[in-house]
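Practice problem: Enoyl-CoA hydratase/carnithine racemase
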Amino acid sequence: MKHYIGAGNPMRAQFEPKAAYKAEHFAWSYEAGVGTITLNRPDRKNPLTFDSYGELRDLFRALVYATDVKTIVVTGAGGNFCSGGDVHEIIGPLTGMRMPELLEFTRMTGDLVKAMRACPQPIVGAIDGVCAGAGAMIALACDLRYGSPATRTAFLFTRVGLAGADMGACALLPRVIGQGRASELLFTGRAMTAQEGHSWGFFNALHESDALLEAATKVARDLAEGPTFAHGMTKTMLSQEWSMTIDQAIEAEAQAQAICMQTEDFKRAYEAFAAKRKPVFGGD
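Answer key — structure tokens:
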């Protein structure tokens, strides 16, 4: 969950702001509590490299401590989201690696998904055009996903002779769209249309391409203005309760909600309701 660390807290120095972060292998921007990651190699449909994988992983890990960033938008440049691992910069070199090196790579890619899921801020995906391979997994790791009629999402690992079991696909995808649909996409590698993705629950909504990023950013901005400590708790429980029994989940939620009831945001919401005005949350 996301913890608020006040300016007077002696631990404050350990919680580094990320508004001024300078990205090397993608674009990063920040405004009003919303950090935006843009995969920006549009000439190649924004493929990933070894370096961009590592930097994305490290940024999401660091965002755990960034009290200024309330929500995150992930998108791609040039009308596409991400075409997956770069064929020449990743796929080619992998064919010459030995097992220990390959395992280091596959663990690194999985660590990106782990970092996104452990990141307490809600992550909103604005997913246009091509969304394939590892790009589809980045989209899947987002908390909310918005697409366009042009979006085509393909978990195409089998097309390159690999298992559909990649970066957590066999665990995450069935939970989002169901076991049968996930099995079809992972066995065949075919592209899921935007309409299928919307009707199956992969996309929360579809917007025209020229309005997609704005719509996703508005969702992120609205979340950033909400009770961000409580949002972090919601994300934590959504993840942890996968491995709980119903009784365990109910008890865990009782404890989680009791913690949230100690926050100033809970008091602010009550006071605003009593005064018949909109609450202004502080994240603490």
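Discussion: The mean pLDDT is 94. Students who identified this feature from the tokens alone can consider the problem solved.
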